[in-house]
Design a protein that fits this description.
Elements: E1 4-13, E2 20-30, E3 35-39, H1 46-53, E4 61-66, E5 69-70, H2 76-86, E6 87-90, H3 102-112, H4 117-130, H5 146-158, E7 164-168, H6 176-191, E8 196-200, H7 204-207, E9 212-217, E10 220-226, H8 232-246
Parallel strand pairs: 3-8, 3-9, 6-7, 7-8
Antiparallel strand pairs: 1-2, 1-4, 4-5, 9-10
Length: 247
Amino acid sequence: MPLIQTENLTKVYGKGETAVVALDHVNMSVNPGEVVAVMGPSGCGKSTLLHLLGGLDRPTEGHVLIDGSMLSTLSDDELTQIRRRKIGFVFQFFNLIPILSAVENAALPLVLDGQNITQAKEKASEWLRKVGLGSRLENRPDQLSAGQQQRVAIARALITDPVLVLADEPTGNLDSRASDEIASLLQQVGKEWGRAVLMVTHDPRIAAYADRIIFLKDGKMVNETHLEAQSEGNRELVANQLRALAR
């Protein structure tokens, strides 16, 4: 059974002649441990899809099911609990708090959920070590590279043991080397740590790290491509093929 599933997911902004259909009857699913990339031109509905999957917005029509919970039937408080405990978010610009250390930033979701600060920091330290930042626990964001800051953000996303990680252009603010490192880490989040990962990206090379790629155009799902495990040597070839499909 899919961990994430959408049924005729539709989002319309405005009414009448000024209505804009941002997402148009999208049906998709994501399985545990699967990494799915979403691609498409600007304005195709990628961000809208991410917001609906994350419970940040409500659909005009259709449903989102996450781990058996239908988001459209939940109250605002229940949605908040789902976001805090079952969904981890990774953003393009990291969204770290400048005055907090790496371990304090990573621990924040647990602290906000009412957990003991000492225990939250212990768990944050464990996740920071897993993402390769064991020697940077006390560094503030301005003392870290962009790639390291994104690793902190990924540790923060994973600390609540979510079933789903949503990543919005996670490499959009990184150089090519750091981008590959973060894409590989997100691949590990799925394969080794068993989370479902859905990432929006404009970069075909980063999308090539996924198991499956969904293409959106004008709010509709127009194509879906399954990828075999890619070696570094042929990832650029796959990226070129994806560029052609994305046109």
